[in-house]
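Re: [ENG-882] Designed sequences occasionally contain unexpected residues at chain ends

Forwarding the minimal case from QA. C-alpha cells:
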C-alpha cells in the first residue's frame, strides 16, 4: 500500500535550487556571470534545451575550478546529475569526491542522496538503501534537519519493500517527531521563498505514512488513530487530495478491524476523488474484500477484477492482490471455467516471482496455495484442456492455421525489423551537413515560376530565415499565414517553394519538422523520455497520428522505434 510519490516530489523540490528566467549566452559571456545568475539560467534552459543547460553547468564548474572552490564545482556537477540516472550516479561520485572532507552542512550528503534517488528510480533497491543510509549518517552528523526529513521516508519506503515493517515504523515515528518538534524546520519551511509551504506537505505526509506503517503491521487501533489525525489535518490545511487518500486508506483499516460496512462507506466516499492509479487499485481491492466478508460475491468479483485491471495498466504488483487472485481461482474452479482458472493461477505465480525479486520473504510467501501445489494444478489444467482439445478436429485445424499465420507473422516481423534497422542506420548516418528541406533539387528556374525575380529572391530570403529560426515547429503555420507574414500572396509563395524544392508547401513543412526532430532526438537524451503527444507538440504537430504518419512517410520507420534504438545504443555505450 505504501506509496512514496509525495516524498519523492518533496525530495526533488529540496534538491532543486531557485528557478527563474534567463537567456542563452555564449561560453565567454556565461563565465562572466555570477553563480546565482548561472543557477537561474540553468533551470531556465533545462526543460527546453539540454545542450544549452550543459554549457551553463560547464561555465559554473569552470568558475569554481578557477577559484579553487570545490563546493561550487560540486554544485556544478549536481546540475549534471539532473540529466538522468546514468549521469546522475556518475556525477554524484564526483560530488562526493570533491566534498568528502567538507564541513559544509549539505555535503557530501547531497551526493549520496542523488545516488540513492537514482538507484531507487531504476529499481536497484539494494544500492538505493545503501546510499540513503550513508546520507542519513552524514545528515545526523551535520545536524541537517531538512535532509533528515527527506531521507527518513525514503529509507522507510525501502524497508517496507524488504518486509522490515517494524523498522519502517520506527523511522516514520522519528520523522514525524522531528517535524513536529523542531521549531526551526517549521519556521523555515512554512514560508519557503522558493517553494511555498513545504512544511505542510512534509507534515501531512509524515502522519499518513506513519498510519500506513501501523497498517502494514496490522496494529489497527494505532493505524485508525493516525488516519483520523491525517483526515483532520488535511481538512485543516485544505489539502483535498491528501484528505481523500486518507479516507480511502482509513477504509482499509476498517476492513482489518472487521467493520466491513464502515470500510465500504469510507472507500466509496473517497473513490470518485482519487487520482493516483495505485490508490484506485487498492481501493477496489479492499472493497472486494469487504464485499467478500459480507457474502456479496458478485460485487466482490467485480471489485477484484477492476483492481487487477487497474494494477495491470500501471504494472503495480502489491502483495495483497494475491488474495484476490486466489479468490478468483477458487471461483472459476467451482464454475468449471478451466481457461480463466489457469489465467489467475499464472497471475499468482507471476506475482510471487515479482515480489521475491524486491523483498525478503523468509523463504515463503504467506498464502493459501503454495507454489508446488499451484504448479501441479496448472499442469493438470493444461493436460485436461489438451485432452478436450484433442477430441475436437476442427480446433486442431484452427490451431494449425493459427500456427501457420503466426509463423508467417514472425517471418514478416523479422523481415520488417531488418528493413527498419537498415532505415534507422541510414537515418543515423546521414551527413552532418544539413540537407535542404527536400533532398532532390528541382530542375526548374526562377523564370519557370512566373514570379517576378525581385519578389522571388525576397521570398527565398524569408524562407531561409523561416528555417533558421525554426518557425516551422509552430503548429499553426499555414501557407496562407506564412504568405501574409512574408507580405506576399499564397500563389507566389507556393510557386517559389515548388521551384526551389520541387515539392509543395505541405511536403516542405513536413520535411523541415521531421529533419529537425530527428536531429534533436539524436542530441537531446531528455527529449526521448517525452510522451508521444509531447514529442508531436515539440515537432509542430497537433496530434500524435499526424506526427507518426509524417515521421514514417519521410524516414520509413516510426518515431517510437527510432527512440528505442537510440536509447538501446546509449545504454550499450
Amino acid at each position: 500500500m505504501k506509496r512514496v510519490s509525495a516524498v519523492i516530489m518533496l525530495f526533488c523540490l529540496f534538491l532543486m535550487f531557485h528557478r527563474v528566467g534567463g537567456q542563452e549566452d555564449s561560453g565567454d559571456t556565461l563565465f562572466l556571470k555570477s553563480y546565482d545568475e548561472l543557477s537561474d539560467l540553468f533551470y531556465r534552459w533545462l526543460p527546453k534545451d539540454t545542450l544549452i543547460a550543459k554549457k551553463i553547468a560547464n561555465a559554473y564548474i569552470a568558475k569554481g575550478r578557477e577559484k579553487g572552490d570545490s563546493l561550487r564545482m560540486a554544485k556544478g556537477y549536481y546540475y549534471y546529475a539532473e540529466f538522468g540516472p546514468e549521469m546522475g550516479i556518475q556525477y554524484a561520485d564526483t560530488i562526493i569526491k570533491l566534498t568528502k572532507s567538507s564541513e559544509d552542512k549539505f555535503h557530501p550528503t547531497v551526493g549520496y542522496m542523488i545516488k540513492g534517488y537514482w538507484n531507487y528510480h531504476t529499481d536497484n533497491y539494494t544500492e538505493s538503501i545503501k546510499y540513503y543510509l550513508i546520507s542519513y549518517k552524514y545528515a545526523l552528523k551535520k545536524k541537517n534537519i531538512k535532509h533528515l526529513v527527506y531521507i527518513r521516508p525514503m529509507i522507510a519506503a525501502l524497508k517496507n519493500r524488504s518486509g522490515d515493517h517494524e523498522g519502517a515504523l520506527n523511522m516514520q515515528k522519528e520523522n514525524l517527531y522531528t517535524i513536529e518538534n523542531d521549531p526551526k524546520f517549521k519556521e523555515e519551511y512554512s514560508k519557503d521563498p522558493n517553494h511555498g509551504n513545504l512544511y505542510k506537505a512534509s507534515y501531512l505526509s509524515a502522519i499518513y505514512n506513519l498510519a500506513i506503517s501501523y497498517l502494514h503491521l496490522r496494529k489497527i487501533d494505532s493505524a485508525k488513530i493516525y488516519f483520523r489525525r491525517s483526515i483532520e489535518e488535511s481538512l485543516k490545511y485544505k489539502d483535498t487530495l491528501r484528505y481523500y487518500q486518507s479516507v480511502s486508506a482509513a477504509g482499509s483499516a476498517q476492513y482489518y478491524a472487521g467493520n466491513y460496512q464502515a470500510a465500504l462507506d469510507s472507500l466509496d466516499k473517497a473513490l470518485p476523488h482519487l487520482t493516483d492509479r495505485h490508490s484506485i487499485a487498492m481501493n477496489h481491492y479492499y472493497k472486494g474484500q469487504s464485499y467478500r466478508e459480507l457474502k456479496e460475491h458478485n460485487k466482490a468479483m467485480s471489485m477484484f477484477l477492476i483492481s487487477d485491471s487497474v494494477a495491470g495498466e500501471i504494472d503495480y504488483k502489491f502483495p495483497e492482490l494475491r488474495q484476490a487472485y486466489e479468490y478468483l481461482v477458487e471461483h472459476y474452479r467451482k464454475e468449471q471455467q478451466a481457461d480463466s482458472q489457469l489465467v489467475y493461477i499464472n497471475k499468482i505465480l507471476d506475482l510471487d516471482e515479482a515480489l521475491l525479486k524486491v523483498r525478503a520473504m523468509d523463504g515463503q510467501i504467506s498464502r493459501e496455495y503454495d507454489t508446488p501445489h499451484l504448479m501441479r494444478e496448472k499442469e493438470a489444467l493444461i493436460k485436461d484442456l489438451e485432452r478436450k482439445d484433442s477430441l475436437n478436429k476442427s480446433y486442431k485445424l484452427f490451431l494449425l492455421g493459427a500456427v501457420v499465420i503466426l509463423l508467417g507473422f514472425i517471418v514478416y516481423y523479422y523481415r520488417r525489423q531488418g528493413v527498419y534497422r537498415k532505415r534507422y542506420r541510414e537515418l543515423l548516418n546521414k551527413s552532418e551537413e544539413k540537407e535542404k528541406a527536400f533532398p532532390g533539387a528541382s530542375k526548374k528556374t526562377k523564370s519557370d515560376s512566373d514570379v517576378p525575380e525581385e519578389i522571388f529572391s525576397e521570398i527565398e530570403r524569408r524562407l531561409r530565415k523561416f528555417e533558421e529560426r525554426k518557425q516551422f515547429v509552430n503548429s499553426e503555420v499555414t501557407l496562407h499565414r506564412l504568405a501574409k507574414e512574408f507580405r506576399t500572396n499564397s500563389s507566389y509563395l507556393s510557386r517559389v517553394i515548388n521551384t526551389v524544392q520541387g515539392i509543395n508547401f505541405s511536403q516542405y513543412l513536413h520535411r523541415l519538422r521531421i529533419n529537425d526532430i530527428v536531429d534533436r532526438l539524436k542530441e537531446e537524451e531528455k527529449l526521448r523520455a517525452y510522451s508521444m503527444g509531447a514529442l508531436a507538440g515539440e515537432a509542430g504537430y497537433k496530434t500524435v497520428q499526424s506526427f507518426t504518419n509524417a515521421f514514417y512517410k519521410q524516414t520509413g520507420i516510426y518515431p517510437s522505434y527510432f527512440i528505442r534504438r537510440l536509447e538501446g545504443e546509449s545504454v550499450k555505450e
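QA comment: On inspection the terminal residues look reasonable. Confidence is low (pLDDT under 50) at residues 1-24, 360-370, 431-441. Proposing we downgrade this to a documentation issue.
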